[in-house]
Amino acid sequence: MEELKFSKTHEWVKVEGDRVTVGLTDFAQKELGDIVYAEPEPVGTYVEVEEIIGTVESVKAASDLFAPVSGEIVEANEEIGDEPEMINQAPWDAWFVKIRMADPSELDALLDKDAYDAFCEEEGA
Amino acid sequence: MKKTPLYDRHVALGARMVDYAGWNMPVQYAGIKEEIAAVRNETGIFDVSHMGEIRVSGQGAGEFLNWLLTRRVTGKKPDQITYAILSAADGGTVDDLLVYTMGEEDYILVVNAANKDKDLVHIRESLDSYQAAFKDRLSAIVIVDESDLYGQVAVQGPGSLDCMLEVAGRLGLDKGQQEELKGLKRFHEMIVELEGEDRSMIISRTGYTGENGYELYIPASKTATFWDIFIGAGVEPCGLGARDTLRLEAGMPLYGHEMSPDINALEGGMSFFVDLDHEFQGMVMKDKVTRRQLALVSETKSIPREGYEVHSGGKQIGLITSGTFSPTLDKGIAFALVDLDTPEVEEVEVLVRKKLQPFTVVRPPFVGK
Description:
The structure holds 2 protein chains of 2 kinds. By secondary structure, chain A is α+β, with helices and mostly antiparallel strands. Chain A has 4 helices and 9 strands; from the N terminus they run βββαβββββααβα. Chain A has one domain (about 10-100): CATH 2.40.50.100. Chain A has helices at about 25-30, 80, 85-90, 115-125; strands at about 5, 10-15, 20-25, 35-40, 45, 50-60, 60-65, 70-75, 95-100. Chain A has a 6-stranded antiparallel sheet with strand order 1-2-3-9-8-5. In chain A, strands 4-6-7 form a 3-stranded antiparallel sheet. Chain B is an alpha+beta fold. Among the domains of chain B are: about 5-50 and about 150-250, Gyrase A, domain 2, CATH 3.30.1360; about 290-360, Beta Barrel (Elongation Factor Tu (Ef-tu), domain 3), CATH 2.40.30. Chain B has a 6-stranded mixed sheet, with helices on both faces. In chain B, helix 2 (about 30-40) packs across helix 8 (about 240-250). Classes of the chains: A alpha+beta, B alpha+beta. The interface of A and B includes residues 33, 37, 55, 58 and 59 of A.
């Protein structure tokens, strides 16, 4: 988990070459509670930083996932649509999309684990 | 923020606490789905101590309440409870409430926490209007806020009577009172005197979940002890999150959503609780009905949320007032407020994230008969 990066909008980001895999953080899934709906944006969509890459809903609330970097969505995890509870059970495995990065320098704006944990602590307090 | 007598218990149980109407309240403990399943299949308990209790008593109190509310409270049995709407002179909704008959010319109104202060102002001002309008009616009415004297818990679910009987002795009910509890009808109450307390406990067969259940108005100093007895008996603690979804599944309205100063009781689907054959303040609402309520069930995985647009025949006809995912039905459900002249249709569309999704129009409740 050490190699992951994080956004302030609660996405985790795993870098593999010129691609990133993006999912919802453990903190965010706990905040939402029982997740009952999940839908990634379709493959082929080009997104700028902070544009929507997916939607997640709990019993009580709807929320979006935002692009941590700009680029094209090259894979979307359709399984989370059939089993949205996966996001509660294993948030680090239940990825939403893979993005082919347009500008890897955008990764520098993301948080490392310690910084993200501190950010969550502040937000949760 | 205000705390109920059960605040420490919620924190100890690991509840997630939120600000609700100025109160620090538990929104969930184990999780909304688990809590909802407990109430639908077994028994759950809710802290509803934030609800307000306003006592209206004295000569002429019953006649005054008849005029103040959308339904008559007089002429009922002494242990009968009336659900009614508190409407403004312009017909808009001030609050919805339960009226407990406590004795001759002695009533307790149980009101929403968020509305209690404005209710008190409204009721006092209305009393002035009433006394000016009906000079021939003798009245010596006293209005007292008794909210701080009571804690309140709701025990809800198909197992609630068995659970109540199991712990009844420890709550101070003698054999006779336990028999009375067994025979207690829906929307009726019983009074239990407690040793060492000036104030009696009120137990009513009421609730906000659509399941059988009981609400207990407990002197504040005993509320935590009684809560512990229920938790010790294995009853599932449930938060406000589960409560809101359970009430919507049961087709029950929530103030600020289905009714508001701008949405009168007839528009909000409450015509069953408005007796137009008696004179009451706010009666003008009958001439101000421009919208009506629809109950909707999702035909896809889409979940409707408050404020989403409702469309029919190629145009917008209204908005969602309450929407949620129903774990019991495994579908999205909602109440909508639509234009009165909307033709009767079996299906409408709801705009969910820029896409129109099909919804079936149903008769509430969504869950249960």
